[in-house]
Amino acid sequence: MALSGTLDTFALPDVLRLLASTGKTGRLRISGDRGSGSVWLNSGEVSATELTTVSSGESSDADIIFGLLRFSAGSFSFEADAASPNASASIALEPILAEAESMMTEWRSIEEVVPSLAVWVGLCRELHGPDVMIDSLRWKCIAAVGSGAQVGLVAEELHFNEIEMCRLIKELIELRLVELIDAPIPDVVEVEVEPEFDPIGDPPEPVAVADIVAEEPLVEPAPVAAHQDDFSASFDDVPNTVPSLASLAPVEEVEADATFDQTSPDLFADNDNDNAANADDLNPAEMARQLANLSPKAAKAVAAAAKASTDAERDAALAAVEAEDGTVNRGLLLKFLGSVDS
């Protein structure tokens, strides 16, 4: 027998009574707006029940069928000969269904006062009478309600199912011990948010060149070129640098000195061992060749010293040369620059 339909067409009690009166064996599935459930029948008697919306607490077959009767919309289908995995001794359907229908009648009066487990209740501020008598069960419920609680949470604490809890809350409301309240508004914690970093802000204040020279070297150190060819290539790209001073020396002297020793101490001697005699024997051609061996940054600093119009500018440039190459003899370099100026 194939049986299926919707609950708005066939009422669930009528479907159950039809299956019981014909002695059917199988599973009646119900799916609706409150979840889903099943009733297993064995020769027209109830062998097992199941419901996904039953609240905490022990639920009997009558409680489960009552929960299924509360579906306001849904559908059903019957699977013949389907056995329950947790079947127990079969019980006649009619007493169970009668109890569930009685609970349904009571529920209609309860939900007029307590619509669902989602509502909030709180204690009344004053008693509406000189005294009141309550038992231990109602006191437990009052204590669980406290300053305010959701009915469903009270049911979980007391291990009551939905109809038991709503029935008890209804009684306490009628005794004017508790009342429905609005759901509390969560406290809003104000969090102070730090302003985001603005990468586009006011431009930095201009800094005088003299201040930069006083605090940091004029140029950053750079590794000396590994080969003379590489150095020459990079040196040619530097405008107005000291290599142009090499033009001060006669060409024939430069070409004749093929055995020039790049480690000559005339210019690069230790600053602590300055030799006045070397300064007196200054050779512009040899000095120019030695200056050509400086790194590009040191050469730029020497050029800046040569062009300096004040003593402060020259001292700053010489400090940059010493920072780039610590072996430079400042006394000889000053002597050379003086000869260039003259």
Keywords summarizing the entry:
alpha+beta, 3 domains, 15 helices, 8 strands, 42% helix, 13% strand
Main-sheet strand order equals 1-5-2-3-4
Portion of residues within helices: 40-55%
Mean pLDDT: 75
Largest sheet: 5 strands, antiparallel
Q: Estimate nothing, just give the exact number of structural domains.
A: 3
What is the helix tally? 15
How large, in whole angstroms, is the Cα Rg?
51 Å
Cα distance, first to last residue?
125 Å
Order of helices and strands: EHEEEHEHEHEHHEHHHHHHHHH
Low-confidence stretches: 212-216, 224-280
Q: What gross morphology would you assign? A: elongated
Q: Got a strand count?
A: 8
Secondary structural class: alpha+beta
Estimated share of beta-strand residues: 5-15%
Describe the structure.
This protein is an alpha+beta fold and 342 residues long. The chain folds into 3 domains: 3-110, no CATH class; 120-181; 209-341, no CATH class. It is built from 15 helices and 8 strands. A hairpin with a 2-residue loop joins β2 and β3 (35-42). The longest helix is centred in the first third of the chain and has 18 residues, at 93-110. The radius of gyration is 51 Å and the shape is elongated.
